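Researcher: Let's run the pair from yesterday's discussion. Sequence first, then C-alpha coordinates, for each.
Model: Starting with the first of the pair.
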Amino acid sequence: MTSRQMVTSLILDAFGGHQAAWLTAPRSSANPSTDIAHFVDIAQRAEKAKLDFVFVADFPAIPDGSLEQLSRSAVSMSVLEPATLLTALAMSTKHIGVLGTASTSYYEPYNVARLWGSLDHISGGRAGLNVVTTRSRSASFNFGKDDLDEHDTRYERADEFVEVLNGLWDSWDDDAFIRDYDEVRFFDPTKLHTLDHKGKFFNVRGPLNLSRSAQGRPVISQAGGSEAGKELAAKTADVVFINAPTLEFAQNFYADLKGRLAKFGRQQDELKIVSGLTIVTGSTQEEAERRTADVSRHIHPEIGRQMISGVLDTDLSDVDYDSRIPQSKILDNVNKGQTYFGLIRKFVEEGRTLREIAAHFAEARVGSIVKGTPEQIADKMQAWFEARGSDGFMMRAMTVPGNLDDICEEVIPELRRRGLVRTEYTGDTLRENLGLDVAPSRYLGRIGA
Protein backbone atom coordinates (compact mmCIF):
# COMPACT_ATOMS: atom_id res chain seq x y z
CA MET A 1 0.00 0.00 0.00
CA THR A 2 1.27 3.47 -0.87
CA SER A 3 2.02 5.89 1.97
CA ARG A 4 -0.20 8.63 0.54
CA GLN A 5 -3.86 7.64 0.80
CA MET A 6 -6.69 9.05 -1.28
CA VAL A 7 -9.43 11.00 0.53
CA THR A 8 -12.79 9.47 -0.40
CA SER A 9 -16.18 10.99 0.33
CA LEU A 10 -19.76 10.91 -0.91
CA ILE A 11 -22.32 13.64 -1.44
CA LEU A 12 -25.65 12.69 0.10
CA ASP A 13 -28.35 13.18 -2.52
CA ALA A 14 -31.96 12.14 -2.08
CA PHE A 15 -32.33 11.21 -5.76
CA GLY A 16 -28.80 11.51 -7.15
CA GLY A 17 -26.48 14.09 -8.63
CA HIS A 18 -28.16 14.36 -12.01
CA GLN A 19 -30.64 17.21 -12.39
CA ALA A 20 -33.23 14.75 -13.77
CA ALA A 21 -32.49 11.92 -11.32
CA TRP A 22 -35.85 12.26 -9.55
CA LEU A 23 -37.63 11.31 -12.79
CA THR A 24 -35.83 7.97 -12.87
CA ALA A 25 -36.30 7.09 -9.18
CA PRO A 26 -38.76 4.37 -8.13
CA ARG A 27 -42.24 5.89 -7.99
CA SER A 28 -43.84 5.94 -4.56
CA SER A 29 -45.77 8.25 -2.26
CA ALA A 30 -42.73 8.64 0.02
CA ASN A 31 -40.43 11.64 -0.39
CA PRO A 32 -36.77 10.52 -0.20
CA SER A 33 -35.73 14.12 0.52
CA THR A 34 -37.19 13.87 4.04
CA ASP A 35 -36.91 10.12 4.64
CA ILE A 36 -34.25 9.63 7.30
CA ALA A 37 -34.15 5.86 6.70
CA HIS A 38 -33.16 6.59 3.09
CA PHE A 39 -30.20 8.74 4.17
CA VAL A 40 -29.16 6.29 6.90
CA ASP A 41 -29.02 3.54 4.27
CA ILE A 42 -26.78 5.66 2.03
CA ALA A 43 -24.46 6.60 4.90
CA GLN A 44 -24.16 2.99 6.06
CA ARG A 45 -23.31 1.85 2.54
CA ALA A 46 -20.62 4.53 2.38
CA GLU A 47 -19.26 3.42 5.75
CA LYS A 48 -19.18 -0.21 4.62
CA ALA A 49 -17.00 0.97 1.71
CA LYS A 50 -14.70 2.70 4.26
CA LEU A 51 -15.16 6.22 2.88
CA ASP A 52 -13.80 9.11 4.94
CA PHE A 53 -17.01 11.10 5.17
CA VAL A 54 -20.45 11.80 3.79
CA PHE A 55 -21.32 15.35 2.87
CA VAL A 56 -24.57 17.33 3.01
CA ALA A 57 -24.82 20.43 0.86
CA ASP A 58 -27.34 23.11 1.80
CA PHE A 59 -29.05 26.17 0.43
CA PRO A 60 -31.31 28.07 2.88
CA ALA A 61 -33.96 29.07 0.34
CA ILE A 62 -35.91 28.02 -2.71
CA PRO A 63 -33.52 28.74 -5.63
CA ASP A 64 -33.83 31.76 -7.90
CA GLY A 65 -36.02 31.37 -10.97
CA SER A 66 -39.61 31.37 -12.13
CA LEU A 67 -42.07 29.02 -10.47
CA GLU A 68 -42.70 27.42 -13.86
CA GLN A 69 -39.04 26.49 -14.07
CA LEU A 70 -38.60 25.56 -10.43
CA SER A 71 -41.68 23.33 -10.36
CA ARG A 72 -39.90 20.91 -12.70
CA SER A 73 -36.87 20.37 -10.44
CA ALA A 74 -36.25 18.51 -7.18
CA VAL A 75 -33.04 20.44 -6.37
CA SER A 76 -33.27 22.22 -2.98
CA MET A 77 -36.98 21.44 -2.72
CA SER A 78 -38.09 20.07 0.67
CA VAL A 79 -34.69 19.34 2.20
CA LEU A 80 -33.63 18.57 5.76
CA GLU A 81 -31.46 21.02 7.71
CA PRO A 82 -27.88 19.65 7.70
CA ALA A 83 -26.98 19.66 11.41
CA THR A 84 -30.19 17.82 12.26
CA LEU A 85 -29.75 15.27 9.48
CA LEU A 86 -26.08 14.67 10.31
CA THR A 87 -26.85 14.12 13.98
CA ALA A 88 -29.23 11.33 13.02
CA LEU A 89 -26.60 9.84 10.72
CA ALA A 90 -23.95 10.06 13.43
CA MET A 91 -26.15 7.94 15.68
CA SER A 92 -26.56 5.35 12.90
CA THR A 93 -22.85 4.98 12.03
CA LYS A 94 -19.63 4.33 13.94
CA HIS A 95 -16.65 5.44 11.86
CA ILE A 96 -17.54 7.59 8.87
CA GLY A 97 -17.27 11.37 9.13
CA VAL A 98 -20.37 13.57 8.88
CA LEU A 99 -19.75 16.90 7.18
CA GLY A 100 -22.36 19.53 6.37
CA THR A 101 -22.90 23.09 5.25
CA ALA A 102 -23.74 26.36 7.00
CA SER A 103 -23.85 29.83 5.50
CA THR A 104 -21.49 32.43 6.94
CA SER A 105 -23.56 35.15 5.29
CA TYR A 106 -26.81 34.38 7.11
CA TYR A 107 -25.98 32.44 10.27
CA GLU A 108 -24.37 33.65 13.48
CA PRO A 109 -21.08 32.08 14.61
CA TYR A 110 -22.21 31.38 18.18
CA ASN A 111 -25.20 29.31 17.02
CA VAL A 112 -23.10 27.41 14.48
CA ALA A 113 -20.39 26.79 17.10
CA ARG A 114 -22.99 25.20 19.40
CA LEU A 115 -24.66 23.16 16.63
CA TRP A 116 -21.49 21.70 15.13
CA GLY A 117 -19.74 21.46 18.48
CA SER A 118 -22.65 19.36 19.70
CA LEU A 119 -22.54 17.25 16.53
CA ASP A 120 -18.82 16.70 17.08
CA HIS A 121 -19.46 15.38 20.60
CA ILE A 122 -22.43 13.23 19.59
CA SER A 123 -20.44 11.67 16.74
CA GLY A 124 -17.35 11.09 18.89
CA GLY A 125 -15.23 13.56 16.93
CA ARG A 126 -16.43 12.80 13.40
CA ALA A 127 -17.99 16.16 12.49
CA GLY A 128 -17.03 18.63 9.81
CA LEU A 129 -18.39 22.05 8.88
CA ASN A 130 -18.47 23.29 5.30
CA VAL A 131 -18.51 27.09 5.34
CA VAL A 132 -20.13 28.78 2.35
CA THR A 133 -20.87 32.42 1.61
CA THR A 134 -24.12 31.63 -0.31
CA ARG A 135 -24.30 33.18 -3.74
CA SER A 136 -28.04 33.57 -4.40
CA ARG A 137 -30.30 36.57 -3.88
CA SER A 138 -33.25 34.42 -2.85
CA ALA A 139 -31.50 33.48 0.41
CA SER A 140 -30.97 37.17 1.23
CA PHE A 141 -34.71 37.75 1.34
CA ASN A 142 -35.12 35.15 4.10
CA PHE A 143 -32.66 36.86 6.43
CA GLY A 144 -33.73 40.50 6.38
CA LYS A 145 -31.60 41.65 3.44
CA ASP A 146 -32.69 43.33 0.22
CA ASP A 147 -29.93 41.92 -1.96
CA LEU A 148 -26.82 39.77 -2.06
CA ASP A 149 -23.74 41.27 -0.44
CA GLU A 150 -20.79 41.91 -2.74
CA HIS A 151 -18.50 38.93 -3.35
CA ASP A 152 -15.48 40.26 -1.44
CA THR A 153 -17.68 41.43 1.45
CA ARG A 154 -19.11 37.92 1.80
CA TYR A 155 -15.63 36.43 2.00
CA GLU A 156 -14.43 39.07 4.45
CA ARG A 157 -17.36 38.17 6.69
CA ALA A 158 -16.59 34.45 6.25
CA ASP A 159 -12.99 35.00 7.35
CA GLU A 160 -14.11 36.69 10.56
CA PHE A 161 -16.86 34.08 11.04
CA VAL A 162 -14.36 31.20 11.07
CA GLU A 163 -12.02 33.14 13.36
CA VAL A 164 -14.87 33.52 15.86
CA LEU A 165 -15.90 29.87 15.48
CA ASN A 166 -12.44 28.57 16.28
CA GLY A 167 -12.14 30.94 19.22
CA LEU A 168 -15.43 29.72 20.66
CA TRP A 169 -14.54 26.05 20.17
CA ASP A 170 -11.33 26.73 22.14
CA SER A 171 -13.22 28.23 25.11
CA TRP A 172 -12.26 25.34 27.40
CA ASP A 173 -8.88 23.72 27.88
CA ASP A 174 -8.99 19.98 27.31
CA ASP A 175 -8.45 19.29 31.03
CA ALA A 176 -10.76 22.04 32.34
CA PHE A 177 -13.44 19.75 33.79
CA ILE A 178 -11.70 18.44 36.90
CA ARG A 179 -14.82 17.22 38.79
CA ASP A 180 -13.15 17.66 42.18
CA TYR A 181 -15.65 16.12 44.61
CA ASP A 182 -13.67 17.00 47.74
CA GLU A 183 -13.36 20.70 46.85
CA VAL A 184 -16.79 20.72 45.17
CA ARG A 185 -15.41 22.18 41.97
CA PHE A 186 -16.77 21.00 38.62
CA PHE A 187 -14.23 22.85 36.46
CA ASP A 188 -11.00 24.78 36.86
CA PRO A 189 -11.86 28.46 36.28
CA THR A 190 -8.31 29.21 35.08
CA LYS A 191 -8.95 26.92 32.11
CA LEU A 192 -11.99 28.73 30.74
CA HIS A 193 -11.30 31.48 28.20
CA THR A 194 -13.53 34.38 27.21
CA LEU A 195 -13.17 35.27 23.53
CA ASP A 196 -14.36 38.88 23.75
CA HIS A 197 -14.25 39.32 19.98
CA LYS A 198 -15.05 42.74 18.54
CA GLY A 199 -14.84 42.92 14.75
CA LYS A 200 -16.30 44.45 11.63
CA PHE A 201 -19.17 41.95 11.36
CA PHE A 202 -19.44 40.30 14.78
CA ASN A 203 -19.22 41.19 18.45
CA VAL A 204 -19.09 37.93 20.39
CA ARG A 205 -18.09 37.78 24.04
CA GLY A 206 -18.21 34.03 24.63
CA PRO A 207 -17.17 31.68 26.06
CA LEU A 208 -19.01 28.77 24.47
CA ASN A 209 -20.92 26.62 26.95
CA LEU A 210 -19.54 23.42 25.45
CA SER A 211 -16.19 21.68 25.86
CA ARG A 212 -13.74 20.79 23.08
CA SER A 213 -14.32 17.49 21.30
CA ALA A 214 -12.17 14.40 20.82
CA GLN A 215 -10.63 15.97 17.69
CA GLY A 216 -10.31 19.43 19.23
CA ARG A 217 -12.88 21.04 16.97
CA PRO A 218 -14.78 20.08 13.80
CA VAL A 219 -12.96 19.79 10.49
CA ILE A 220 -13.46 22.96 8.42
CA SER A 221 -14.08 22.63 4.70
CA GLN A 222 -14.62 25.27 2.07
CA ALA A 223 -15.08 25.68 -1.68
CA GLY A 224 -14.32 28.74 -3.73
CA GLY A 225 -12.29 29.36 -6.84
CA SER A 226 -12.01 33.14 -6.61
CA GLU A 227 -8.97 34.95 -5.24
CA ALA A 228 -10.82 35.72 -2.01
CA GLY A 229 -12.01 32.12 -1.76
CA LYS A 230 -8.52 30.69 -2.16
CA GLU A 231 -7.09 33.07 0.43
CA LEU A 232 -9.80 32.06 2.91
CA ALA A 233 -9.15 28.38 2.23
CA ALA A 234 -5.38 28.68 2.65
CA LYS A 235 -5.85 30.47 5.95
CA THR A 236 -8.67 28.50 7.56
CA ALA A 237 -9.64 25.25 5.81
CA ASP A 238 -8.70 21.64 6.52
CA VAL A 239 -10.43 20.42 3.35
CA VAL A 240 -11.12 22.31 0.12
CA PHE A 241 -13.55 21.18 -2.56
CA ILE A 242 -12.75 21.96 -6.18
CA ASN A 243 -14.89 21.70 -9.31
CA ALA A 244 -12.19 20.90 -11.86
CA PRO A 245 -13.20 20.25 -15.49
CA THR A 246 -9.69 19.11 -16.55
CA LEU A 247 -6.53 17.71 -14.97
CA GLU A 248 -4.58 20.81 -16.01
CA PHE A 249 -7.12 23.02 -14.24
CA ALA A 250 -6.91 20.81 -11.14
CA GLN A 251 -3.10 20.81 -11.09
CA ASN A 252 -2.93 24.60 -11.40
CA PHE A 253 -5.46 25.05 -8.60
CA TYR A 254 -3.67 22.49 -6.41
CA ALA A 255 -0.26 24.12 -6.84
CA ASP A 256 -1.68 27.61 -6.35
CA LEU A 257 -3.57 26.79 -3.16
CA LYS A 258 -0.85 24.65 -1.60
CA GLY A 259 1.63 27.40 -2.40
CA ARG A 260 -0.35 29.89 -0.30
CA LEU A 261 -0.16 27.88 2.93
CA ALA A 262 3.33 28.91 4.01
CA LYS A 263 2.43 32.56 4.50
CA PHE A 264 -0.15 31.44 7.06
CA GLY A 265 2.40 29.25 8.85
CA ARG A 266 0.89 26.01 7.55
CA GLN A 267 2.39 22.84 6.09
CA GLN A 268 1.15 21.39 2.80
CA ASP A 269 -0.22 18.23 4.39
CA GLU A 270 -2.47 20.31 6.68
CA LEU A 271 -4.88 20.94 3.79
CA LYS A 272 -6.62 18.29 1.69
CA ILE A 273 -7.83 19.30 -1.79
CA VAL A 274 -10.76 17.17 -2.93
CA SER A 275 -12.17 17.14 -6.48
CA GLY A 276 -15.87 16.68 -7.23
CA LEU A 277 -16.59 13.66 -9.43
CA THR A 278 -19.88 12.17 -10.63
CA ILE A 279 -19.37 8.47 -11.39
CA VAL A 280 -21.25 6.21 -13.82
CA THR A 281 -19.99 2.69 -14.47
CA GLY A 282 -20.79 0.10 -17.09
CA SER A 283 -19.38 -3.19 -18.32
CA THR A 284 -18.05 -1.10 -21.22
CA GLN A 285 -17.55 2.60 -21.95
CA GLU A 286 -20.54 2.42 -24.30
CA GLU A 287 -22.83 1.02 -21.61
CA ALA A 288 -21.84 3.78 -19.17
CA GLU A 289 -22.53 6.39 -21.86
CA ARG A 290 -25.92 4.83 -22.54
CA ARG A 291 -26.84 4.80 -18.84
CA THR A 292 -26.04 8.50 -18.66
CA ALA A 293 -27.99 9.31 -21.82
CA ASP A 294 -31.01 7.42 -20.48
CA VAL A 295 -31.17 9.88 -17.58
CA SER A 296 -30.19 13.01 -19.51
CA ARG A 297 -33.06 12.61 -21.95
CA HIS A 298 -35.41 13.52 -19.09
CA ILE A 299 -34.00 17.06 -18.71
CA HIS A 300 -36.80 19.55 -19.33
CA PRO A 301 -35.75 22.58 -21.42
CA GLU A 302 -37.02 24.99 -18.76
CA ILE A 303 -34.76 23.39 -16.16
CA GLY A 304 -31.76 23.59 -18.45
CA ARG A 305 -32.48 27.24 -19.13
CA GLN A 306 -32.92 28.00 -15.42
CA MET A 307 -29.62 26.30 -14.48
CA ILE A 308 -27.52 28.24 -16.96
CA SER A 309 -29.37 31.53 -16.44
CA GLY A 310 -28.62 31.26 -12.72
CA VAL A 311 -24.89 30.76 -13.20
CA LEU A 312 -24.59 33.53 -15.80
CA ASP A 313 -26.85 35.85 -13.79
CA THR A 314 -28.66 36.81 -16.98
CA ASP A 315 -32.02 36.19 -18.68
CA LEU A 316 -31.90 33.47 -21.35
CA SER A 317 -35.65 33.25 -21.94
CA ASP A 318 -35.23 34.57 -25.50
CA VAL A 319 -32.51 32.05 -26.43
CA ASP A 320 -33.67 29.00 -28.37
CA TYR A 321 -32.75 25.83 -26.52
CA ASP A 322 -30.91 24.42 -29.53
CA SER A 323 -29.12 27.67 -30.36
CA ARG A 324 -25.84 29.12 -29.21
CA ILE A 325 -25.87 31.62 -26.37
CA PRO A 326 -24.97 35.06 -27.77
CA GLN A 327 -21.73 36.55 -26.49
CA SER A 328 -23.73 39.66 -25.57
CA LYS A 329 -25.41 37.61 -22.82
CA ILE A 330 -22.10 36.97 -21.05
CA LEU A 331 -21.26 39.54 -18.39
CA ASP A 332 -17.68 40.52 -17.67
CA ASN A 333 -18.09 39.15 -14.16
CA VAL A 334 -20.77 37.92 -11.76
CA ASN A 335 -21.27 38.24 -8.00
CA LYS A 336 -21.36 34.45 -7.53
CA GLY A 337 -19.69 31.10 -8.39
CA GLN A 338 -16.61 32.02 -10.39
CA THR A 339 -15.58 28.48 -11.40
CA TYR A 340 -18.91 27.57 -13.02
CA PHE A 341 -19.17 31.00 -14.62
CA GLY A 342 -15.75 30.64 -16.20
CA LEU A 343 -16.55 27.16 -17.52
CA ILE A 344 -19.83 28.24 -19.13
CA ARG A 345 -18.14 31.24 -20.69
CA LYS A 346 -15.60 28.81 -22.19
CA PHE A 347 -18.41 26.62 -23.57
CA VAL A 348 -20.12 29.66 -25.10
CA GLU A 349 -16.86 30.67 -26.79
CA GLU A 350 -16.59 27.12 -28.18
CA GLY A 351 -20.03 27.53 -29.78
CA ARG A 352 -21.93 24.95 -27.73
CA THR A 353 -25.71 25.24 -27.70
CA LEU A 354 -27.77 25.99 -24.62
CA ARG A 355 -29.01 22.37 -24.67
CA GLU A 356 -25.45 21.01 -24.76
CA ILE A 357 -24.27 23.24 -21.92
CA ALA A 358 -27.33 22.38 -19.83
CA ALA A 359 -26.75 18.65 -20.36
CA HIS A 360 -23.17 19.00 -19.11
CA PHE A 361 -24.23 20.75 -15.91
CA ALA A 362 -27.20 18.45 -15.32
CA GLU A 363 -24.89 15.43 -15.42
CA ALA A 364 -22.09 16.93 -13.31
CA ARG A 365 -23.50 19.47 -10.86
CA VAL A 366 -20.31 19.05 -8.83
CA GLY A 367 -16.98 18.86 -10.64
CA SER A 368 -16.76 16.58 -13.66
CA ILE A 369 -18.39 13.34 -14.72
CA VAL A 370 -16.46 10.16 -15.51
CA LYS A 371 -18.09 7.27 -17.37
CA GLY A 372 -16.61 3.86 -18.07
CA THR A 373 -15.70 0.55 -16.50
CA PRO A 374 -14.62 0.53 -12.84
CA GLU A 375 -11.05 0.04 -14.03
CA GLN A 376 -11.24 3.03 -16.40
CA ILE A 377 -12.68 5.25 -13.67
CA ALA A 378 -10.02 4.12 -11.19
CA ASP A 379 -7.39 4.88 -13.85
CA LYS A 380 -8.57 8.49 -14.07
CA MET A 381 -8.79 8.94 -10.31
CA GLN A 382 -5.33 7.47 -9.84
CA ALA A 383 -3.88 9.67 -12.57
CA TRP A 384 -5.29 12.85 -11.00
CA PHE A 385 -4.19 11.78 -7.54
CA GLU A 386 -0.63 10.89 -8.54
CA ALA A 387 -0.27 14.01 -10.72
CA ARG A 388 -1.15 16.23 -7.73
CA GLY A 389 -4.44 17.32 -9.21
CA SER A 390 -6.15 16.39 -5.95
CA ASP A 391 -5.71 14.63 -2.62
CA GLY A 392 -8.92 12.71 -3.18
CA PHE A 393 -12.47 12.90 -4.44
CA MET A 394 -15.95 13.99 -3.46
CA MET A 395 -17.93 11.35 -5.33
CA ARG A 396 -21.50 11.65 -6.44
CA ALA A 397 -23.87 8.97 -7.67
CA MET A 398 -25.73 10.06 -10.82
CA THR A 399 -28.88 8.38 -9.50
CA VAL A 400 -29.71 6.97 -6.06
CA PRO A 401 -29.94 4.12 -5.33
CA GLY A 402 -29.14 3.10 -8.93
CA ASN A 403 -25.56 4.35 -9.23
CA LEU A 404 -24.60 4.21 -5.55
CA ASP A 405 -23.33 0.66 -5.92
CA ASP A 406 -21.15 1.86 -8.83
CA ILE A 407 -19.10 3.76 -6.27
CA CYS A 408 -19.25 1.59 -3.17
CA GLU A 409 -19.08 -1.89 -4.69
CA GLU A 410 -17.15 -1.38 -7.93
CA VAL A 411 -14.88 1.69 -7.99
CA ILE A 412 -13.75 1.71 -4.33
CA PRO A 413 -12.77 -2.00 -4.34
CA GLU A 414 -10.75 -1.36 -7.52
CA LEU A 415 -8.94 1.56 -5.85
CA ARG A 416 -8.34 -0.65 -2.82
CA ARG A 417 -6.76 -3.35 -4.98
CA ARG A 418 -4.33 -0.67 -6.15
CA GLY A 419 -3.44 0.31 -2.59
CA LEU A 420 -4.86 3.83 -2.97
CA VAL A 421 -7.52 3.68 -0.23
CA ARG A 422 -7.72 2.13 3.22
CA THR A 423 -8.78 -1.40 3.96
CA GLU A 424 -10.07 -0.44 7.43
CA TYR A 425 -10.61 2.73 9.42
CA THR A 426 -7.42 3.57 11.29
CA GLY A 427 -8.66 6.30 13.63
CA ASP A 428 -11.61 7.20 15.80
CA THR A 429 -12.06 10.79 14.60
CA LEU A 430 -12.50 12.42 11.22
CA ARG A 431 -9.20 14.27 11.61
CA GLU A 432 -7.36 11.02 12.28
CA ASN A 433 -8.87 9.32 9.25
CA LEU A 434 -7.98 12.31 7.05
CA GLY A 435 -4.40 12.28 8.33
CA LEU A 436 -4.82 15.59 10.17
CA ASP A 437 -3.59 16.37 13.67
CA VAL A 438 -5.92 17.15 16.55
CA ALA A 439 -6.68 20.87 16.31
CA PRO A 440 -4.61 22.57 19.05
CA SER A 441 -6.21 25.19 21.25
CA ARG A 442 -5.10 28.78 20.72
CA TYR A 443 -4.80 29.00 24.51
CA LEU A 444 -2.49 26.01 24.91
CA GLY A 445 0.02 26.80 27.64
CA ARG A 446 -1.78 29.93 28.78
CA ILE A 447 -3.52 30.34 32.14
CA GLY A 448 -6.93 31.98 31.99
CA ALA A 449 -8.05 34.67 29.56
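Model: Moving on to the second of the pair.
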Amino acid sequence: NQLCESGRHDCDKNAQCIERGTNDYECVCKPGFLDRSPLPHRPGRKCLERVCLDDTKHDCHAAAVCQEVDGPEKYTCKCRDGYVDANKNKPGRECRELVNECLDSSLNDCDPAATCRDTPDSYECECPIGSRDISKDPSKPGRNCFGASYHLYLEGYRVTL
Protein backbone atom coordinates (compact mmCIF):
# COMPACT_ATOMS: atom_id res chain seq x y z
CA ASN A 1 0.00 0.00 0.00
CA GLN A 2 2.11 2.87 -1.31
CA LEU A 3 0.56 6.13 -0.02
CA CYS A 4 3.16 8.40 -1.62
CA GLU A 5 3.02 6.84 -5.08
CA SER A 6 -0.77 6.70 -5.12
CA GLY A 7 -1.05 10.35 -4.03
CA ARG A 8 -3.03 9.46 -0.88
CA HIS A 9 -1.11 11.85 1.37
CA ASP A 10 -1.44 15.44 2.54
CA CYS A 11 2.08 16.64 1.76
CA ASP A 12 2.44 20.11 0.26
CA LYS A 13 3.01 20.17 -3.52
CA ASN A 14 6.50 21.54 -2.76
CA ALA A 15 7.30 18.70 -0.34
CA GLN A 16 8.63 15.22 -0.93
CA CYS A 17 6.58 12.31 0.38
CA ILE A 18 8.75 9.59 1.95
CA GLU A 19 7.32 6.14 2.76
CA ARG A 20 8.00 5.05 6.36
CA GLY A 21 6.37 1.66 6.27
CA THR A 22 2.83 0.39 5.80
CA ASN A 23 0.32 3.25 6.01
CA ASP A 24 3.01 5.63 7.28
CA TYR A 25 4.81 8.43 5.49
CA GLU A 26 6.73 11.63 6.16
CA CYS A 27 6.63 14.95 4.30
CA VAL A 28 9.81 17.00 3.83
CA CYS A 29 9.89 20.40 2.13
CA LYS A 30 12.03 20.38 -1.00
CA PRO A 31 15.31 22.35 -1.10
CA GLY A 32 14.61 26.05 -1.60
CA PHE A 33 11.39 25.86 0.43
CA LEU A 34 10.72 26.81 4.05
CA ASP A 35 8.54 24.62 6.29
CA ARG A 36 5.69 26.71 7.73
CA SER A 37 3.43 23.80 8.67
CA PRO A 38 1.00 24.74 11.46
CA LEU A 39 1.64 21.54 13.45
CA PRO A 40 5.32 20.91 14.37
CA HIS A 41 4.81 17.12 14.57
CA ARG A 42 3.42 17.12 11.00
CA PRO A 43 6.10 18.81 8.85
CA GLY A 44 5.94 19.31 5.09
CA ARG A 45 2.26 20.26 5.00
CA LYS A 46 2.94 23.93 4.15
CA CYS A 47 6.13 24.79 2.23
CA LEU A 48 6.92 28.38 1.21
CA GLU A 49 9.42 29.30 -1.47
CA ARG A 50 12.61 30.79 0.02
CA VAL A 51 12.58 33.87 -2.19
CA CYS A 52 14.58 35.91 0.32
CA LEU A 53 17.69 33.78 -0.16
CA ASP A 54 17.91 34.75 -3.83
CA ASP A 55 18.14 38.51 -4.47
CA THR A 56 16.89 38.00 -8.03
CA LYS A 57 13.53 36.73 -6.69
CA HIS A 58 12.63 39.79 -4.58
CA ASP A 59 12.89 43.57 -4.82
CA CYS A 60 13.71 44.44 -1.20
CA HIS A 61 16.20 47.29 -0.75
CA ALA A 62 19.71 46.39 0.40
CA ALA A 63 18.95 48.12 3.73
CA ALA A 64 15.74 46.10 4.22
CA VAL A 65 14.94 42.72 5.76
CA CYS A 66 13.11 40.24 3.51
CA GLN A 67 10.74 37.72 5.11
CA GLU A 68 8.81 34.90 3.44
CA VAL A 69 5.04 34.96 3.98
CA ASP A 70 2.12 32.85 2.83
CA GLY A 71 0.15 34.64 0.14
CA PRO A 72 0.33 35.99 -3.38
CA GLU A 73 3.24 38.35 -2.57
CA LYS A 74 5.38 35.47 -1.14
CA TYR A 75 7.51 37.93 0.90
CA THR A 76 7.51 41.25 2.76
CA CYS A 77 10.24 43.86 3.09
CA LYS A 78 10.95 46.08 6.10
CA CYS A 79 13.60 48.79 6.34
CA ARG A 80 16.22 48.05 8.98
CA ASP A 81 16.65 50.21 12.10
CA GLY A 82 18.28 53.51 11.19
CA TYR A 83 16.41 53.66 7.87
CA VAL A 84 12.98 54.93 6.85
CA ASP A 85 10.67 54.00 3.96
CA ALA A 86 10.84 56.50 1.10
CA ASN A 87 7.70 54.93 -0.41
CA LYS A 88 4.97 54.02 2.12
CA ASN A 89 2.97 52.14 -0.56
CA LYS A 90 5.78 49.62 -1.13
CA PRO A 91 7.48 49.12 2.27
CA GLY A 92 11.13 48.11 2.27
CA ARG A 93 11.64 48.68 -1.45
CA GLU A 94 13.27 52.11 -1.08
CA CYS A 95 14.98 52.72 2.28
CA ARG A 96 16.61 56.03 3.13
CA GLU A 97 19.08 56.45 5.96
CA LEU A 98 17.63 58.42 8.86
CA VAL A 99 19.36 61.79 9.16
CA ASN A 100 18.87 64.29 11.97
CA GLU A 101 18.84 67.53 9.97
CA CYS A 102 18.67 69.55 13.19
CA LEU A 103 22.18 68.55 14.28
CA ASP A 104 23.76 70.45 11.37
CA SER A 105 22.41 73.87 10.36
CA SER A 106 23.59 73.28 6.77
CA LEU A 107 20.99 70.47 6.52
CA ASN A 108 17.98 72.66 7.42
CA ASP A 109 16.69 76.12 6.57
CA CYS A 110 15.18 77.02 9.94
CA ASP A 111 15.59 80.61 11.11
CA PRO A 112 18.54 80.78 13.55
CA ALA A 113 16.11 81.76 16.33
CA ALA A 114 13.65 78.94 15.52
CA THR A 115 13.52 75.56 17.21
CA CYS A 116 14.33 72.69 14.85
CA ARG A 117 12.57 69.35 15.51
CA ASP A 118 13.71 66.20 13.73
CA THR A 119 10.98 64.01 12.21
CA PRO A 120 11.31 60.53 10.64
CA ASP A 121 11.22 61.91 7.09
CA SER A 122 12.47 65.46 7.50
CA TYR A 123 12.38 68.25 10.11
CA GLU A 124 10.08 71.02 11.38
CA CYS A 125 10.89 74.60 12.39
CA GLU A 126 9.01 76.70 14.95
CA CYS A 127 9.54 80.37 15.73
CA PRO A 128 10.02 81.22 19.42
CA ILE A 129 7.17 82.59 21.55
CA GLY A 130 7.02 86.38 21.26
CA SER A 131 8.08 86.47 17.62
CA ARG A 132 6.04 86.49 14.41
CA ASP A 133 6.43 83.85 11.74
CA ILE A 134 6.77 85.68 8.42
CA SER A 135 7.89 82.68 6.38
CA LYS A 136 6.88 82.94 2.70
CA ASP A 137 5.54 79.37 2.45
CA PRO A 138 2.78 78.65 5.04
CA SER A 139 3.48 74.91 4.70
CA LYS A 140 7.06 75.56 5.90
CA PRO A 141 6.82 77.60 9.11
CA GLY A 142 9.81 78.76 11.15
CA ARG A 143 11.96 79.73 8.19
CA ASN A 144 11.73 83.49 8.89
CA CYS A 145 10.99 84.68 12.44
CA PHE A 146 10.39 88.43 12.98
CA GLY A 147 10.99 90.08 16.33
CA ALA A 148 12.93 87.13 17.66
CA SER A 149 15.56 87.81 20.25
CA TYR A 150 19.03 86.53 19.58
CA HIS A 151 21.18 85.92 22.63
CA LEU A 152 24.95 86.09 22.78
CA TYR A 153 26.98 84.97 25.74
CA LEU A 154 30.22 86.90 26.17
CA GLU A 155 32.43 85.95 29.10
CA GLY A 156 29.44 85.05 31.27
CA TYR A 157 27.28 88.05 30.23
CA ARG A 158 24.05 87.63 28.31
CA VAL A 159 23.52 90.20 25.56
CA THR A 160 20.12 90.37 23.81
CA LEU A 161 20.11 91.67 20.24
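Researcher: Give me one sentence on the second I can quote.
Model: The longest strand covers residues 15-19.
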